[in-house]
Amino acid sequence: MIQCADCEYFHRDVSGNVRLTCDPFSTIKEPQCLTKWQLVKLDTMVRAYEATLAVYNRLAPMQEKMFRHMEREIGDIDEADRWKLGYDDDDDEDEGLNP
User: Fold this and answer.
1) Distance between CA atoms of residues 47 and 55, nearest Å
2) pLDDT < 70: residue spans in the chain
3) For residues 1 and 35, is the Cβ–Cβ distance under 8 A?
4) Is the pTM of this model over 0.85?
């Protein structure tokens, strides 16, 4: 079995992360290569998900403030329009029926 470090598609960057530039559909040399490639890709997906969660955790307090502000604004609008909902249309209808 060929070791990844000996393969031409194996690259290690300056921070020590492994990059496999092989294509699983055409340049896989051994069956174990596919398994290793899948593990590297899975690790990449996990890192991306963790980075997304970190951003969401940073945004959460701002979102809470924004929601509270929007709720206050909507409450103020409802309070200002309350007079429209309290208008009594029954009086106008009764006057129109009795000439």
Assistant:
1) 13
2) 87-99
3) no
4) no
